[in-house]
Design goal:
Shape: elongated
Strand order of the largest sheet: 60-61-62-64-66-68-70-72-73
Number of strands: 75
Number of helices: 15
Strand content: 25-35%
Helix content: 10-25%
Amino acid sequence: MMHLARLLLLFCCCLGVYGNNEGICGSETKDMQNTDMITITSPNYPYYYPSAVDCTWYFSANDIKGSFAIHFLKFDTQPEKDTLTIGVGNIVTSQITALSFSSWISSDVVAVIEEQAVWMNFNSDFAKSSRGFEIQIERVKETVPCKQTSVWCDTGDTCVGEVFMCTDYPECLNTSLSCEVCDDEIDFKCYSGVGCVDKALECDGIRNCVDGSDEWACYECSIEIGNLTNNGPIFISSPNYYFGIPYPNDLDCIWLFTESEHGTYMISIQEFSTEWWDFLAVGHGHNVTDDTTGVIVRGWAFPTSILVPYMKMWLKFSSNHAVGFRGVLMEIERRPGTVECLPDQFACYTGFGCLDQALVCNVAGECMDWSDEWASPCDYCPNNTVSVGNEVIDYTSPFYPLYYPDNLDCFWRVTSDHSSGSLLITFKTISLHYEHDILYIGIGNEITDSAIILRLTGNAGPRKASVEDSSLWLRLTTNAWGQISIGVWLQIEWRENYVGCDSDEFLCSNGYGCVDEATVCDGQDQCLHGSDEHNCNFCGIEDMYLTPNNEFNVTSPRFPRQYPLTIDCSWTLVTSTRGTIVIEIIKLNTGLYYDKLYVGAPNATIPFDVDEAIEGPLVLRFTGSEAPKSVLLPHSELKMAWDASVWSPDKNTGFLVRITWSEANTTCNADDFVCPLNLGLMCLYADQKCDGRRLCPTGLDEQFCGYCGPRNIFLENIEVLNYTSPGFPLQYPPNLNCEWYIIAEENMIIVLRIKSFELERGFDYLLTGNGLVAGKEKTAELTGEVKIRTISSRDSTMWMILETDNTGQLAGFHLQIEKLPASEINALCEGSDYHCGSGFCVSYNAKCDGFTDCYANNADELRCAYIHCPGSYLCDKAPDVNISKCVTMEEVCDGEIECPGGDDETFCDVKKCPDDCSCQYEGESLIVSCEQGWADKTLDNMARTSNSLVLSEGHIGILEPGIFKGLARLFTLSLEGNSIDILEQGCFDGLYNVTWLDLSRNNMSYIQSNLFEGMPMLQELYLWDVPLTTIHSDAFAGATLLKTLVLIRERARDISITVHENGFRGLAALRKLYVDDHHLCCHFDTLDDCITLEPQPPLFMCGSLMQNSVLRISMWILGISALIGNAYVIVLRIREKTKTLIAAKQAVLIGSLAVSDCLMGVYMVILASVDVYYGDEYFIYSDDWRSSGLCKLESFLSLLSSEASVFFITLITFDRFLCIMFPLSTIKFHLRSCRVATLIVWLIAFVLALVPTLLAGPESEFYDLSDVCIGLPLITRPTSYNIESSDVGGLHSARTFDLPVPEQFKPAWFFSIFIFLGLNLVCFLFIFVCYFIMFINVRIMRQKMKGAVNNERDADLKLAVKMSAIVGTDFICWMPVIIMGLLSQTGAAVIPLQMYTWSVVFIIPINSSLNPYLYTIASLITDYRKAGEKSKSMASVSDMSMRQTNVTEAE
């Protein structure tokens, strides 16, 4: 294999080493005066010619009459790039060009030029080359006739074989020859263009075309051939050979031969034109392995004939990813017995090949065992002694500029013909395997170490050397390592005087050798004793003393240029006190695993043993191009070392490290990943976490990388890596999007060998591609179970992507990731696997199975006589398609045409209708109905193009995730009556187009979160007769277009549906809602209609308890006001010392009124607190609240407060009425009777508050509680209902529901009517009448009093205002409720339920809030004013008395 590698790179790297065409074209002038035939070849023929060649040859003859006949024996150049031009005369000019040839020319072409002088010019570009040409130029004195099988071109200067006429490949430069036109439908066009034969006669074993081309293309890629003994010889060619175009890339054609009798296969290679990477292999048996291989033919080197003395034989033609050539044409025949090579041929020791003698000892190894090179006496080092005269002598290594052989020991002796002067050696090329292959140059005649003046190895050496001696010797030794190098080329000439070094050259210390100044101190010895590398400070400052004010930059030798491989360095870092040494790695570019930078504690040794040192002294090692951002080490002394290996294969620039020191403790940045060290920290960039490169000594940076693991997979120093999907062999996780990047060394390819593979077909994929840009240059897309066994990359990088959805997880995959040298691409497949080409191998049973497993070229399905599809669908053959094809049953009726004729998408109501189901087309819609039960396999056998699906009586229990995946064309789905208990999240995934879904008559008790996320087009959803109790958060997320929702349980109606927070979020488009739980209507603000199937409770309200902020704030203000004001009155009345009967009675009555009003304040504050507690979700808990003990307490407090307040105001009014109207009567309240009356009032109010509270209930006709815990007579109750049928409507539904519509009503709650419309109205009228009479009476009495005329109007006005305030507040408090109650109970108006809240906030508590001010605080203010006026009056009277006394005394 190493020999093959040597030859492989021969033409890719080193053919342009000449720099000019000196010596490679041969003699330019060819005088044909004394010869009739000259052979001209391209440089290096039969090997590839160099790039940038420009060769010219001149041919001349003295005879006037005659012609040059140019015979093209072999011609193979790069099309339109490399050209051979033939012209007339002695001057190369385009003006007299006769012929021009490029690309491939057949051997039957003859060019004839009737001139005395002809020139030929061959020119190649800088790109790739080919094998070139071999041409015979013949001088003839008469007209050259064409062969019987050839014809003249129109120009009369070129003769072309008939076999190559009309092939669409022009051998004639200009021609008007007409080619016979064949009917492509019924005729086969002979390759020569001469003749058409019936297609039925093609490949019938009889040559009907003159050239026999009707039998040529009968044995194409990968077929079995038998019985050659009776059928005679056959032709085998690479694909496209007969079309004159290059064969395809990534081929792997295998032909198998079988005979029933002993004999020998004889393979005659007619044409062989391939790229070096492409090859023809021949072996015995039918097992295509290395063990059975007898011959491998590639590039330009091939045997004349191949002999296979077996009953079975195989041929394999393989091509790589690069551009192809014309290909191969072989004639194969079966001969009886044993066949020997011809006498003038060399027989390969394998017994397979026969070679022309010209191919022996050419270092090419045409024999498989290279016996043509080692079994013959090959002299690779001729001309041992040369004498130098005045000419320049060229010395080259054997086969230069090709790769020299192994195990050489060549010796040359050079002497001068001159007795004085010097020998000048000029070095043109030096390319040797470093330190293994060496060229020694010495002076004198003895080969001794002391005589050596130069020792050359690798690619380095002096420009020239001058020797003042008449003799010298050269010795070239090579080892057996098979390293590929082109060797040396040097020129030796005599000079009269000694030649010294130029100004830009360095003279070696021994006086021999002039070295380019630019290469001095480059780390490579070019002088014998390395004097060009002496006094070179490669490592810089080796002892560094760190302070806070300085920093050091440490670099590899010669940075940023390529560092030498022979220089090692060490540095010591010292600080004055203990602090933190900060090492920032600015640049790192070294030979991975070869060249290393170390950082270690002072007690570590050099070179450091990193693996052992992790447990001992601190040691860090950096190599390649990956390095941490910085290293923080709290040491006062450290060591650094640089160790470069002479074996390093890379050319790198080294490293740059910045070193600083800080007295304080230093830490990594916040966005860095931190690796703890034994002492210190290593700081990594954030993107270095989980990148596949272990930088932390403990590997912490490559741990905890999630399901996908590190994104980079490096194959350095790894031969085989087992790689699995996350969780393998258990199920892989859902919703994966893993990206992996596989990186190998240069000149390697990456090979994925699939050991196990199971992904959900059509939904989960493994993608592969070339390069490091995921998604670009995709090579494979794998899903389900695959027959692909091997995938290879184009070069050293490859990407993989694993994509999975959220359901249907399977085991995943197990891959073996390998790397192979690019030269071993043909060893890609294992065992009996079939090589597709294009870097793929598939299992042997993939061949002719009807499925395209070879993605790039369909090679596994070519030339298949019979296709069988067990468990799959066999496509009908299309009229214009000759191959059969199978598709999986999942692909039948999936909406995508896979069959050539499209028959996999027809008659889907028959081909994919499950058992026990009915399938029929209505127009273009496929309707499937399975009403007798169904299971998972029912869906597997169903057409994915189904548009409407009915599934019932399935008794499924659990609807699992992904069960409907693949039914993306479904528009309506009915799952009614399947006893489904649980709908798992993801069970509706894939139903992207469903607009109508019926889940009625099932047993689900809850709807979980994101259940309908996979149904973005859903518009109608029916859940009828489903015992739902819970709707989880975001249950309807994703169903943004839902317009109609039916949630009718039939069962479990006595249990309210619990709706979690945001349970109905996302239903902005909902317009119609059908429910049997009226609470659900409150979750929506934008509904056009919310229809409930149950009679809605009369006191139910949506939203919060207090409907808006005005109510909420007012409730708190009025409640606190009533509480504080009445509490003040209570305290004042208790502390007041009464001196009169009237004051005592007032204290009892007004104090009792304050107590009742204070209870109203307590009621309001509790209600306001409940509103805050429940907030906007109050309606959810409204039923629980109304039946709670606290609400009953609130009901008791509100009734007790309101009725006690009514009674006490009435009692106070009656007392004032008696005192004013009958001031002298004995019929009046005394203190005792007042207290008795007060007690009776409290007892009556207590009973009136307690009894209805105890008897309240939703079905009670006596009394019930509203949301504010008081039953005002503002509603009526329906006594009968009219059942109306309502059509849900919509796109697909005809279902109707019975809706109860109230028909007759009756008054609600007789107690409320009695209290609020009866008793309170009577009390108000009594108070109004009393105050009216009192006002009239007081006004009459004042008019009768004398001396009161002036103040009468003011007093009347004040009295009227006070009485109006008392009566007005009573009116505002009671009359609105009385009026609304009368309107409601008589049916004159429907009072909104919100009026309960407004009444409780602004109407009922009016008295409780104002009574303290009307009955107590206002009186206190009046008394205070009267006391002030009385004080002033007393002072005036006293002053007048004193004045009268003084007058009397004076008198």
